[in-house]
Amino acid sequence: MSSTTGKCLCEQISVAVTKEALGAADKIVVCHCKNCRQNNGSLAAVDVIAPESSVKITGQPKIYQDTNTDSGKPMPRAFCGNCGSPIYRTSPSFPGMLIIKLGLFDEIPKPATEVYCKRRPTWVKAIDGAKQFDTMPK
Ligand SMILES: [Zn+2]
Ligand SMILES: [Zn+2]
Question: Which SUPFAM superfamilies does the UniProt entry name for this protein (predicted)?
Fold first, then answer.
């Protein structure tokens, strides 16, 4: 199956995701939660929630166990130990899935969902047509 490959800044880690997984618009999500913001050092996280079977990671990301989560369950966050780029995270809410950072890729598909919108800065507009949630929908 054909895939698209993203890379961390130093290119030691690459992430190949099938085009099918990247094409699932409802799985392209912006997260405005504070943890994702800090982890990305940015306005928000833009991720694709992809089945593990659709992802191939080359290289050895380091894992940070994020324990300061809403659910209280640890959330492993993988990053490049050399350049610091965030790579993916996993979540007990999405078993068998990797939540991959779309900033690693040349093209970012349009997100269909925004979560933790209550954290979005007032000067940032909602994405036209995207579903809006104040927290993570159950
Ligand atoms: Zn790197
Ligand atoms: Zn988040």
Answer: Mss4-like (SSF51316)
